[in-house]
Amino acid sequence: MLDQTYDIVRSDGRVETRAFRDILSKYPRTILYFYIRDNTPGCTLETEDFTRLLSEFQTRDIAVVGVSRDSVESHQHCIQKYMLGVDLISDPGEVLHHAFGVIAEKNNYGKISVGVVRSTFLLDSEGEILREWRGVKATSHADRVLHALKNT
Questions:
Q1: Residue 152: is its pLDDT beyond 70?
Q2: Is 108 a residue whose pLDDT tops 80?
Q3: pLDDT at residue 31, rounded to an integer
Q4: CB 64 within 8 A of CB 33
Q5: Is a pLDDT exceeding 80 seen at residue 133?
Q6: Using alpha carbons only, what angle is made at residue 30 by residues 28 and 35, rounded to the nearest 5 degrees?
Q7: DSSP label of 117
Q8: Alpha carbon distance 95, 82 (integer Å)
């Protein structure tokens, strides 16, 4: 998994193809959060919150990177439209999604479907999971993650 390459859209809109290992090596630790889709209310709110708190994560030597199945073009549009400060990985093949087990059966008001379960992971620079939050709500999630990490 660490040597698998992904297209990552930087907060300035540039696109780079990088090995997952290289993405994780930017900081000693990385928050990797999986969200459902660009330009949806909850996902936009979550990404805006991570952008708002980015400097606080970075002062703790933690990078923040979002992941969805969206295309590079969709990520670029979303970053520009909402002036986002976090980098976004495009994973249309769901390789990272499956590696982290975030594709699962979901029950939404009695309707069963398979999709992305909003989840966040704290990783070290070697990809080891240090902490995880699964099945989270978008509202105030970034704040809760930061609060949980204030003493680490």
A1: no
A2: no
A3: 98
A4: yes
A5: yes
A6: 175
A7: -
A8: 26
AA identity, residue 97: H
Location of structure tokens 């976004």: 88
Strands 62-68 and 111-116: unpaired
The contacts of residue 36 (CB under 8 Å, 6+ apart) are: 42, 43, 68, 115, 116, 118
Beta partners for residue 87, in sequence order: 65
Catalytically active residues, by annotation: 43
Nearby residues of 74 by Cβ (< 8 Å), 6 or more positions away: 38, 39, 90
Beta-strand relationship, 29-34 and 15-19: unpaired
With beta carbons less than 8 A apart as the criterion, state whether 148 and 130 touch.
no
Q: Could you tell me the CATH number of the domain that includes residue 83?
A: 3.40.30.10
**Are residues 123 and 130 in contact, defined by beta-carbon separation less than 8 angstroms?**
yes
The tally of domains found in the chain comes to 1
Q: What is the pLDDT of residues 45-55, one digit of tens each?
A: 999 999 999 99
141 within 8 A of 120, measured Cβ to Cβ: yes
Domain that holds residue 47: 5-149
Looking at the DSSP bridge assignments, the partners of residue 119 are 34, 134
Supply the DSSP symbol for 35: -
Euclidean distance between CA atoms 27 and 97, whole angstroms: 22
Question: Are 91 and 67 contacting, i.e. CB atoms less than 8 angstroms apart?
Answer: yes
